[in-house]
Amino acid sequence: MQIFNFLLLAGAVTALFLASVAWTRRHAPGAPALLAMQLSAAWWLTCYALPFARLWPDDGMFLRMRVIFPAVVAIAPLTLIFVLSYTRGTNKWPRSRLLALAIVPAVVVAAALSPLHDLCFGTWRGESTDSIFRMGPLFWVHSLYSYVVVAKSVLALVAAYDRGSRHVRRQTRILLGALLVPIICNVTFIAGVSPPDLDPTPIGLVASGILVSLAIFRRGLFDLVAVAREKIGSAITDGFIVIDAQRRVVESNAALRRMFDIGQPVKPGRLLGDQLAELDEHVARLGNAPTTTEFVHGGARHLELRTFAIGDDDGNAIGAVLIVRDVTEARTTSLALEQANAQLKAQLDTIQSMQAQLQEQVIRDPLTGLYNRLYLTDALARELTCSARTRGSFAVVMIDVDHFKTVNDVHGHALGDAMLRALGSLLRQQVRPTDSPCRYGGEEFVVIMRDVTLDLAIERINELRVAFSALRFASNGADVGRSFSAGVALFPLHGRDEATLLAAADAALYAAKAAGRNQVCAAAGRVSNPRPLSLG
User: Fold this and answer.
1) SS3 of 271, please?
2) Could you give the 3-state DSSP secondary structure of residue 522?
3) For 113-123, what is the mean pLDDT?
4) Would the pTM of this model clear 0.85, i.e. be above it?
5) How far apart are CA 62 and CA 291, in angstroms?
6) Stretch 351-373: mean pLDDT, rounded?
7) 12-16 LR contacts (CB < 8 Å, sep 24+)
8) 34 against 246, higher pLDDT
9) Mean pLDDT of the chain
């Protein structure tokens, strides 16, 4: 007997521990009901283990039954609440259903604790001569009610096992055992199979607590929660609909109805085209490959339709899952982003164009359109670096219009400007793209000619000189023309830096002027103390 009481007290401690675990996870579906179940089981086991017969020799057994009875009648309805909460994935219960479940237990407990206790216990007082079959009518009402409630709990678990995933089935198997063991023990007692003075039901409760502990700590009960299919469907914001090979509706969710503004639920078994003709039009021929289609609903709502085939074991298509997503916001945002990008690109193009124009204004002479003196400095530095690295050569040509001052003094500055513009145009047309014609100042021009010999540079400048001399400008009924003189210096023959090269070309220019103008002269001599070319 001591071992029996020890097992009961150990079971009570286990039940209290499970109640504390359920409290820490009270937001999980079924946890509040399990908390109440385990508190009731702990009360039942503790009272059953206490020595009521020794403390109250006359009516201790009867007193114990009355004290235990509230827990006895509460276990079955709490079991149903736990099972349905677990299988449905929610702890929310209508008050009317809770009150309906509590009617029979409340009436039985009220009678058991009142002077009307004979309605529950009849002539039974816990004596050795008493028989369980002498219990009152309310006891048998309570027993029948409990068996019906537990049977419904078992059926709910069986249904959850049938449609559940692998981990849900593992949990469900253990919970079924936790329900059936105490019921089997109780049936043996009620049926008179067990000794009348030894109720095995508490031992069944101890085994049930052990199984529930296994479900919680080994199978993830309350951690891997089973979620009802309808809860999943309502939680998904995308609309979905399942159709069979004949395009008949199998299942759908509420989000689909909201997208297509349908008031009535989509009825299973009917053709998709009869209920959602617009969607049916965009469903391509059912095949094994997924498809994606986008269309506009109601003139404003952009919907994306994706179809996924459902096949049998042989790979034959037996239906399809259609997923509809509202992409209106994404399309609106994308369109706004495209417009913003287009505007930004236009603004960037404008800025780049203005920068290019500004850059041209910085490096161009406004009268002739040639490069200016600022550009000349950079161009000379680049040519010196490049030619020193490649051991190449380039020419610096200094040009000055002959007797230009008399043009301004006699014919006016307008004609002088026209003459300078004509020379600038001629230089742009005649020099190579790799050459750099620049206006040095006033009527002076400088041309940098890449990769030329001294003779070739003189030849090309002479051609320009002849072409310019042939030009005529009208002034007061007379044709006015001018020539130019030029001096040519070659890198590295006549200099290895900007100043030396410009000075050599300028000296050659003055030599051409002194020789009678309208001619091209080369710089005289070589650079004194020439330095070796640098490859850096």
Assistant:
1) strand
2) strand
3) 84
4) no
5) 73
6) 85
7) 12/41, 12/42, 12/45, 12/46, 12/49, 13/42, 14/206, 14/209, 14/210, 14/213, 15/39, 15/41, 15/42, 15/45, 15/205, 15/209, 16/42
8) 34
9) 85
